[in-house]
Design a protein that fits this description.
The protein has 616 residues and is mostly helical. 75% of the residues lie in helices and 1% in strands.
Length: 616
């Protein structure tokens, strides 16, 4: 199914953007047409299913690593090399490249629909893919050449730096493969094709697991690094056929209309990449501090973080589907609809991640024991990892808020530097808190620093830069005021009744005052557009979050008691999960929290979609 894309990511002040909508429409954060709602339901269902499959395979990957190599110096060496694919995935697949390429491909698709000569989409691919590929190859070669120096910088206290350097050289190939995979993913999402991009992590983890079993006996932990290279190739392979069909399915049009080049916004690309690098740098700080601790510290942090972040990953999958909806609303000049969509995403994602965090904290020993306690992974490793995971879970809400809010800053297609400033403040807090507590609390101190730093960043992003409108002005949403302002600039519509001029507007004095007020309005709009693309009603969001956090705290306490009662790990985990879910749901509905009601509505929508699909 295909939805004709608009020029996603282009702000309302860009030439050629559609005017603001003059008709009244419901503000629920979604599109109005049933076709679009069906598309969102289908895309969300596909993305959710494959995201869960990828997350489960990620757990199997970590289980295989723990079973084959345990939590010792060899695993620490591989996890230092694992920093390369972690950075590459954030910059080239999940955030950076997607934020820059999806608007460009959307613009090219609009030009194709307008009948531009040739094929703007193929022209975009021909002009960008070769250059980006050369950049990816150059960066991969650079990482291979400086691998020993990277190990020394990332983990100066590592017992076996040569093993880590070998693993880095093998994982460095992922810069090329991840870059190509991210390019294909952005192009397919712009074409409203979500199945192949959602399957990339299934292919990736399958490649790593298979390589570890095939080569683990002969190569040791280097087999896991080789698996990263194999998995990266599979990520490209699962997407190429679909992208090739999209490029070939539209023949070139006659050259009667000149092909307009897609907009190139280097400021936006730089802002997004810098923010993504700062966000991923938390891992560098953690492993730098953990390298001074006894062997196994980095492994404990890795296992705890991978499991704890599963609720965050699942809660953010909604933003992958709704990001084009937000950018399209901004391109239409409908700021209010974009705001409603972002706030609804905040409520839903926060509700989902807090339920997951409550389960993680309540059932941490049972989860780690069931997943990892076998082979070289001992009961002592389970106890330490479970303790670290409970601390990590305290920062899951902050991680989710950052993931949702960053899209509200970059969705308008304009560079925004405030997110990088907020992330830098969080990094500073992570480093200094970690440096001050690692000597006393060990790995738990590092996890505490991570949670505190990302929570600080989330708070700064939610509040916004000083002097920025927060989404309301004297009871009138900013988006509605902006839409009315756009309609006034365009003049009254055909069905608009004439209005009487105000008293202040009559005569020369009124015109003189109005002339002096206009530059002030433009200055305020310019300051707003340069800071945040979508206004957020901060007080309302904070009120919603406070209710969710209170509900999650009560559910966590009840789940901890229920999980610790049975002797069996499996029974304890089941009892804890059921108790957390029941308490959270009952309290959420009793307090009338929007996130809980929205989550129930979404579940009903997906259920109806599944029943409808089976009936057909």
């Amino acid at each position: 199914m295909t939805v004709t894309p608009r020029a996603a990511g282009r702000g309302a002040d860009t030439a050629g953007a559609p005017p603001a909508r003059a008709t009244a429409q419901p503000v629920d954060g979604t599109d109005l047409t049933g076709h679009t709602r069906r598309f969102l339901a289908k895309a969300t269902l596909i993305t959710a299913s494959l995201s869960v499959a990828g997350a489960l395979l990620g757990l199997v990957r970590d289980q295989t690593l723990a079973r084959l190599f345990g939590a010792g110096s060899e695993t620490d060496a591989f996890l230092i090399a694992w920093t390369v694919p972690e950075f590459a995935a954030t910059l080239l697949i999940e955030d950076g490249l997607a934020m820059a390429l999806i608007p460009a491909f959307s613009f090219a698709l609009v030009r194709r629909a307008q009948g531009a000569g040739g094929d703007p989409v193929r022209s975009l691919v021909a002009s960008t893919l070769p250059r980006l590929s050369l950049c990816f190859v150059a960066v991969s070669a650079l990482i291979i050449g400086v691998a020993p120096y990277l190990v020394e910088a990332l983990a100066p206290g590592l017992p076996d730096p040569r093993l880590a350097a070998d693993c880095i050289r093998l994982t460095a190939t992922c810069v090329l493969t991840f870059g190509l995979a991210g390019y294909c993913s952005a192009a397919l999402r712009a074409h409203r094709r979500f199945l192949p991009p959602a399957a990339i992590y299934v292919a990736y983890n399958t490649g790593i697991i298979s390589t570890m079993f095939l080569l683990g006996g002969a190569w040791g932990v280097r087999a896991a690094a080789a698996g990263v290279a194999v998995g990266g190739c599979l990520m490209v392979t699962v997407q190429l056929p679909s992208l090739w069909r999209q490029l070939r399915s539209h023949p070139s049009a006659p050259s009667g209309v000149a092909v307009e080049a897609p907009p190139k916004n280097l400021g936006l690309i730089s802002a997004v990449l810098l923010f993504a690098m700062c966000r991923q740098s938390q891992v560098l700080i953690e492993r730098f501090l953990a390298s001074t601790l006894p062997a196994g510290a980095i492994s404990y942090l890795n296992y705890a973080q991978k499991v704890a972040q599963i609720p965050m990953t699942l809660s953010l999958m909604l933003c992958t589907v709704t990001f084009p909806v937000v950018t399209r609303a901004l391109a239409d000049g409908d700021t209010e609809r974009a705001r409603a969509r972002v706030e609804r995403d905040l409520a839903l994602a926060s509700c989902m991640v807090l339920v997951g965090a409550a389960v993680v904290i309540a059932c941490a020993p049972q989860i780690i024991a069931i997943l990892f306690q076998r082979g070289a992974f001992t009961a002592q490793d389970t106890a330490v990892t479970a303790g670290v995971m409970r601390v990590y879970a305290l920062g899951l809400l902050g991680q989710t808020l950052v993931g949702v809010l960053m899209r509200s800053y970059f969705s308008a297609g304009r560079p925004a530097w405030y997110p990088t400033v907020a992330m830098a403040a969080g990094l500073g807090a992570t480093f200094w808190i970690g440096a001050g507590t690692v000597g006393t609390w060990g790995v738990s101190g590092i996890a505490t620093a991570n949670a505190a730093g990302i929570t600080l960043t989330a708070a700064l992003l939610l509040v916004g830069p000083p002097g920025t409108p927060k989404g309301t002005a004297k009871g009138t949403p900013t988006g509605q005021a902006g839409a009315r302002g756009a309609r006034r600039r365009e003049g009254p519509g055909p069905d608009t009744a004439p209005t009487r001029p105000s008293r202040r507007g009559r005569g020369s004095r009124g015109r003189h005052r109005a002339a002096h007020r206009k530059p002030k309005t433009r200055t305020r709009a310019a300051r707003y557009s340069s800071s945040r693309g979508v206004p957020i009603r901060t007080r309302q969001v904070l009120s919603e979050l406070s209710g969710l956090v209170l509900t999650a705290g009560v559910a966590t306490a009840a789940g901890t008691v229920a999980a610790g009662t049975p002797q069996s790990q499996v029974v304890g985990l089941a009892a804890g999960c059921v108790t957390v879910a029941a308490v959270f749901l009952v309290l959420g509905l009793a307090l009338e929290i929007q996130g809980c009601t929205s989550a129930l509505h979404s579940v009903r929508t997906v259920t109806r979609r599944l029943r409808h699909g089976r009936s057909r």
